[in-house]
């Protein structure tokens, strides 16, 4: 006998594009999509989710979510409590709903809304009712999956994809091709053909690959003995495991373990664990906008995208630093990367789709270039083994920010406000509202304040800017000071002339005060090197 006990209820709401990392947990978690659309990666397996999709995350499984549009999700956490002597009693039920299930939204809402209502309610009757509704939801999932298994699947590709998810969760089990074909409701010959079209190999090779990847992870990150690793990944015979491992990896499990002493594990932005050199020397990085993060730490890559390094004030300051760095293009040219013989490749989210090809050249890690600058630097410190340098840089940057504003207190009033607008071409204006680049300095706790109106309209998620109707400029440019950013390629006198012709320009508070500052958008770059350079020159930027 066993019991399923709901332990936590979480409602997740997103206003637009966003991402979320669900780390590993000792409990089961049920992720339910009520509104919106998102992409998921569970244990390196990709899928999508629409309203009505219910996904069971098994213990110790990680999940990366990318939200595409306005969305509402529920995350229900629960335990399977088994009576003494009945270990594994809950396994059949859990297996029956593992992976992804789709329920009619009307049926789903009936139970999820009642479960998620008043999550902190302590009344015992209310809690019992919530538990009862949760079990009703689990019953619905079991019934739906049973119904699906009784139907003949008309989409071979989808049915094979579902068996791939099963294999990722059950690779340590002995599963025959016929069992997989039966699970997909396909003839054996059709299943094998569809499987190879999707994966490029047969089921046996695919299972072996999954087992060996997990074996490498265990050998490099735990102290378990080789026979224990073999058993965990599905091999009862240690000698057979040793032969298969050496056949596929070129070295024995013991040799592999010794080599790993010179490597370490990191987790990339999608939650995937990667094995990389402990002291990489020849680094390639594909994101031009955050290349300065590496440079701030004193690390010059052998290859990088240099498309932003021709602008002032960057070029003259970095010519010597980057003189040996080769341009790898944008998007990244993998043939150029191969020629540089790197020992580590760092890919941005934009370039992450090339991770499999880049990994064939050198160990590859994906970074989130949209994360805040301190988070990005700490991640680089973890990957490159320069934690102390990263920590010192951030502490010094914060101290410098505070000193700059302490010295500037006499040049502004205590509650003085500032607004930052970005001018594109043809009178396109955008309100910058995220604390990044120049704004991180401007809105320092000792610096300028945001006007209450701007505080009210700025979203919590989504883009870094808000489009401004030029005819409604007075509703946005409400600060005591106004900072106008324009592309380096724009002619600044022409920008000034264009803005001065806008309705209401002359009545703006900052214009009346003579407190309008026109700057190149380069000063707003969010990388660590430019942020430091901007701080050095900050005083004169608005003098």
UniProtKB/TrEMBL annotation:
UniProt keyword annotations, A-Z: DNA-binding, Signal, Transcription, Transcription regulation, Transport
UniProt subcellular location: Cell envelope
Pfam families given in the database record: HTH_18, Peripla_BP_2
HTH araC/xylS-type domain: residues covered: 161-259
Fe/B12 periplasmic-binding domain mapped to chain residues: 282-543
Record-linked InterPro entries: ABC_transptr_periplasmic_BD, Bact_iron-sidero_bind, Homeodomain-like_sf, HTH_AraC, HTH_AraC-typ_CS, Tscrpt_reg_AraC-type_HTH
Source species, domain of life: Bacteria
SUPFAM superfamilies: Helical backbone' metal receptor, Homeodomain-like
Family: Belongs to the bacterial solute-binding protein 8 family.
PANTHER family, per database record: IRON III DICITRATE-BINDING PERIPLASMIC PROTEIN, IRON(3+)-HYDROXAMATE-BINDING PROTEIN FHUD
Full protein name: ABC-type Fe3+-hydroxamate transport system substrate-binding protein
Native source organism of the sequence: Paenibacillus eucommiae
């Amino acid at each position: 006998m066993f019991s399923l006990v709901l332990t936590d209820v979480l409602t997740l709401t997103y206003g637009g594009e966003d991402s979320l990392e669900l780390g590993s947990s000792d409990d089961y978690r049920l992720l339910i999509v009520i509104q919106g659309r998102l992409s998921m990666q569970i244990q390196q397996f990709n899928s999508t989710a629409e309203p009505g999709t219910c996904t069971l995350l098994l213990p110790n499984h990680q999940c990366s979510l990318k939200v595409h549009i306005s969305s509402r999700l529920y995350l229900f956490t629960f335990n399977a409590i088994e009576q003494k002597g009945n270990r594994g009693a809950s396994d059949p039920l859990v297996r029956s709903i593992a992976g992804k299930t789709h329920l009619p939204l009307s049926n789903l809402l009936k139970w999820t809304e009642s479960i998620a209502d008043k999550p902190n309610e302590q009344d015992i009757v209310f809690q019992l009712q919530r538990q009862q509704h949760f079990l009703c939801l689990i019953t619905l999932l079991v019934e739906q999956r049973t119904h699906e298994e009784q139907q003949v699947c008309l989409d071979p590709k989808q049915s094979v994809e579902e068996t791939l998810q099963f294999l990722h969760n059950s690779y340590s089990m002995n599963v025959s091709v016929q069992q997989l074909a039966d699970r997909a409701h396909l003839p054996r010959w059709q299943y094998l053909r569809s499987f190879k079209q999707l994966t490029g190999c047969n089921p046996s090779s695919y299972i072996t690959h999954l087992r060996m990847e997990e074996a490498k992870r265990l050998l490099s990150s735990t102290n378990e003995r080789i026979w224990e690793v073999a058993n965990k990944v599905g091999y009862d015979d240690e000698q057979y495991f040793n032969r298969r491992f050496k056949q596929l990896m070129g070295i024995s499990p013991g040799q592999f373990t010794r080599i790993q002493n010179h490597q370490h594990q990191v987790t990339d932005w999608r939650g995937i664990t990667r094995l990389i050199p402990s002291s990489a020397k020849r680094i390639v990085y594909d994101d031009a906008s955050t290349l300065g993060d590496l440079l701030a730490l004193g690390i010059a890559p052998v290859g990088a995208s240099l498309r932003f390094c021709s602008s002032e004030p960057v070029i003259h300051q970095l010519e010597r630093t980057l003189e040996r760095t080769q341009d790898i293009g944008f998007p990244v040219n993998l043939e150029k990367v191969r020629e540089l013989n790197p020992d580590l490749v760092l890919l941005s989210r934009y370039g992450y789709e090339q991770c499999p090809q880049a990994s064939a050249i050198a160990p590859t890690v994906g970074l989130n270039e949209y994360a805040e600058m301190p988070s990005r630097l700490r991640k680089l410190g973890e990957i490159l083994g320069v934690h102390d340098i990263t920590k010192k840089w951030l502490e010094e940057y914060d101290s410098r920010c505070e000193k700059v504003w302490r010295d500037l207190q006499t040049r502004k009033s205590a509650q003085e406000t500032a607004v930052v607008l970005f001018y594109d071409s043809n009178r396109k204006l955008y309100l910058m509202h995220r604390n990044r680049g120049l704004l991180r300095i401007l809105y320092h706790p000792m610096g300028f304040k945001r006007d209450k109106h701007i505080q009210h309209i700025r979203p919590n998620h989504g883009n870094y800017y808000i489009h401004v109707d030029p005819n409604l400029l007075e509703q946005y440019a409400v600060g005591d000071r106004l900072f106008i950013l324009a592309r380096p390629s724009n002619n600044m006198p022409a920008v000034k002339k264009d803005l001065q012709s806008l309705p209401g320009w002359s009545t703006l508070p900052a214009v009346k005060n003579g407190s309008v500052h026109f700057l190149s958008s380069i000063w707003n770059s969010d990388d660590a090197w430019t942020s430091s350079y901007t701080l050095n020159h900050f005083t004169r930027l608005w003098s």
